[in-house]
Description:
- The complex is a heterodimer.
- By secondary structure, chain A is mainly α.
- Helices cover 65% and strands 3% of the residues of chain A.
- Chain A has 15 helices and four strands.
- In chain A, a hairpin with a 4-residue loop joins strand 1 (107-109) and strand 2.
- The longest helix of chain A has 29 residues, at 325-353.
- The two termini of chain A are 22 Å apart.
- Chain B is an alpha/beta fold.
- Chain B has three domains: 3-91 and 171-249, P-loop containing nucleotide triphosphate hydrolases (Rossmann fold), CATH 3.40.50.300; 103-170, no CATH class; 266-505, 3-Layer(aba) Sandwich (Rossmann fold).
- Chain B has helices at residues 2-5, 54-61, 84-89, 107-111, 126-139, 155-168, 185-200, 212-218, 241-249, 307-315, 337-342, 352-356, 363-368, 383-396, 413-425, 443-458, 470-473, 498-505; strands at residues 14-25, 28-39, 43-48, 69-74, 77-79, 92-95, 173-177, 204-208, 221-226, 229-235, 266-276, 282-292, 296-301, 322-327, 330-331, 345-348, 376-377, 380-381, 431-435, 462-467, 479-484, 487-492.
- A six-stranded mixed sheet of chain B has the order 6-7-8-3-9-10, sandwiched between helices.
- In chain B, helix 5 (126-139) crosses helix 6 (155-168).
- At the A-B interface, helix 1, helix 10, helix 11 and helix 15 of A face helix 11, helix 12, strand 18, helix 14 and helix 16 of B.
- Bound molecules: adenosine-5'-triphosphate and magnesium ion.
- Adenosine-5'-triphosphate (ATP) is lined by residues 25, 28, 30, 48, 50-56, 97, 410-414, 442 of chain B.
Amino acid sequence: MSKSQTMTDSEGKEHKTPMFGGDFDIVRLLLEGRAFFALIAIIIVFSALSPFYFSLNNFLIMSSHVAIFGLLAIGMLLVILTGGIDLSVGSILALAGVCAGAMMQGLTAEAAGVILYPPVWVVVLLTCLVGAAIGALNGVLIAIFRVPAFVATLGTLYVARGIALLMTNGLTYNNLSGDPALGNTGFDWLGFNRLFGVPIGVIVLAVVAILAALLLTRTPFGRWVYATGGNARAADLSGVPVKFTTVMVYTLSGICAAIAGLVLSSQLTSAGPTAGTTYELTAIAAVVVGGAALSGGRGTIGGTLLGAFVIGFLADGLVIIGVSTYWQTVFTGAVIVAAVLLNSVQYSGRRRRSAGSGTPPSPKPSKPS
Amino acid sequence: MSIAAAHQDDSGEVVLAARNIAKSFGSVHALKGVNFKIHRGQVTTLFGENGAGKSTLMKILSGVLAPSSGDITLDGAPIEFSDTIEAREHGISIIHQELSLAPNLSVRDNVFMGRELTTRTGSVDYAEEARQTQLLMEELEEDIDPLTPVEELRLGQQQIVEIARALSINSRILIMDEPTSALSAAEVEVLFKVIRDLKARGVSIVYISHHLEEALQITDHAVVLRDGVMTAYARREDIDLEWIVRNMVGENFDLGSPPEAQFGDVALSIDSVSVPDASGVDLVRDLSLEVRSGEIVCIYGLMGAGRTELLEAVAGRLNLTGGRVVLDGEDISHLGIAERIRRGLVLIPEDRQRDGLVQTMSVGQNLSLASIGAFTRALFTSPKLENEVIDESIDRVHIKTSGGSAPIGSLSGGNQQKVVIGKMMATHPKVVLLDEPSRGIDIGAKAEVFKLLAERASGGVGVIYSTSEVGECLSVAHRIVVMRRGRIAAEFGPDVTKAQIMAASGEAID
Ligand SMILES: Nc1ncnc2c1ncn2[C@@H]1O[C@H](COP(=O)(O)OP(=O)(O)OP(=O)(O)O)[C@@H](O)[C@H]1O
Ligand SMILES: [Mg+2]
């Protein structure tokens, strides 16, 4: 290979892969940061309407609500980036909670006639495995058997919910705090405790978000995800393992849903088979409000988190000022549509503006002269 | 600009005139004050390098883009188009360089998309649409059923559909932006016949092509655009090929000659390979071909001869029904695409929009997509190393872009093609397969691509490229293989004549 370097670096070109968002110039900031500005607006409006809204403690409580949607939305973003959709996350969340509940109540080993009480870390691990397994099933159906993502995950939405109902007979596991005598205490730590004053659920969200952001922006897998969603055929011909990538994003989405299920049942110290109904739609909404394109290939973790906070802070704010739940639904819907409207402005705008960003034109000589 | 000033007031009636047209995309000045005229019933051809601004000018004349400044007069009256529909109402239609068809719809539905014919009750008159589509296909001498979904057609046929759609509009001014880039010589002949008919009916044509000889056959006026400025105008009678090339790029290019033959071992061996189409009929039959390292093989054939299928099967995109592919002495028939790339076998596909580029990614991310491993350290990609790969690629294949972070859609067609080539070259392959590598690129870029192939071959890379332009066979190839109906019909050395090649391919020569 004839290496002719030294030229471009002097021009100070950047091709950066920003972790949360984009290059910082004003118009782009305004557009890409619109979820951020929406969040600020929501905080200002509700703080004016209610004296209880603007306090650190309330923010932390609201954030631990957001954590559930945020975790689902991160998994959903991975899937949507590849051009797919995952409708099963709400059901996986419920099934994960129920599985954790069942294990906390003790597993009866038929043959030995004893009841096993696995320690909490084992419960957490096994629950995540359940989520991963259902996610992988989605992925295999979609990538290998070519079932459309919408249909495949709609199927698992019903199946997972059904299994959760079967396992509990429709009832709810109530006491999940464990028993010191059995050595399985600590489950409520996830939902109740705080580290440096921050609820553990929020910390879990932050950790998952950072890992996901690293995954998307700094690993080959992240590049595969964006390429698969942008043009699967071209990705395939460039050696991107498209099928593997597809199976993996659904698996990761399943794991995220299972983690959300753990956090939720720990917060409630109970696990019911009907938990998380329609949460998949909230997760999709968060991803869309966060600026991702449903057609795939475009979106960031930062945006998705903001989207989750916008929706969560809006919903809690409406509760705090005492708006009826019916109106809450209307408002949430309006926010989603407004966000998607801005999406189309952003993408057409970006195309128009694109040539303006970056360095002034320094056309490479296209021929020897 | 003195030549440009004298632009065409001598011959025929001017239908449309554009004055001082400028267009900027942000800081990129694609057009810098261009004057352009279209004459009734005549063909005006726009020549220019990739990125010269040809497509941009045509998009302005057809209402796709609004000019930054300048004005357009139609039949002497000033006019402004707010969109393509308005332009169409004034009788201007355009065949875009990049296909704009809906792949899931049938040929008929694509031809009438947005202008559906209706019966008296207001429902779509499918029968009439199908009848007219059939007539258009007959006029273009193409055997395509109007009800076939477009995605089932090969690229050349899709281009025919695009042309048919433009013809069906019955416009007074028809703009053709590289209408022949995927057509065979015979299909081009038919198109030219249609163009002559249109001229006789008083339709004015603007033609753009990087096939210079071909364009010279049909044109009445030649306009050369360079870096957004019109640099030369002449009537057909006064010029020749050399004039165009000189004005386009400032010097004469030839497509090179075969590099000195220093062949190594057999790098790639295709061993009695058969490739079926969707219905199980073999498109490639029991075909064997060997390439040594350092050797350049050209596959010539008409559209439908099975070249694309052969190359895609060798690259691992299509399955074989028989035979095997051996790379460096190892059977790789069972391996996936990624593994073949890792072992040094890459394909540069024919259709860059569909198979080559990820539109949502930047130029740089597209360039580095196939060689992510090269800039991954432990688990993570290194932006610094990636930028080195990108900048090296931009430089290696001479891509005209504001930088690696530019969106891929901001590049001209030819530069997009170079991105696809650059992407695969960045993997440092041992054997390169190129399916019509010169599609849509200008003569300078073409010469560069062939020079690049010759360079790689001298470095020990085995190269196979396919083409449907005879002229390109007689450039850097050491060996020319003619394919016909899925088989090798003939093999020649570099001293063969064009006529021999065409005869072997089954092409009629006049
Ligand atoms: N949407 C856009 N945004 C930014 N720059 C653009 C856009 N469209 C075109 N350009 C730039 O304008 C210039 C002219 O492009 P154009 O497509 O008109 O070239 P062309 O002469 O048709 O080339 P080709 O022969 O490769 O088709 C190029 O430098 C291109 O990068
Ligand atoms: Mg063009």
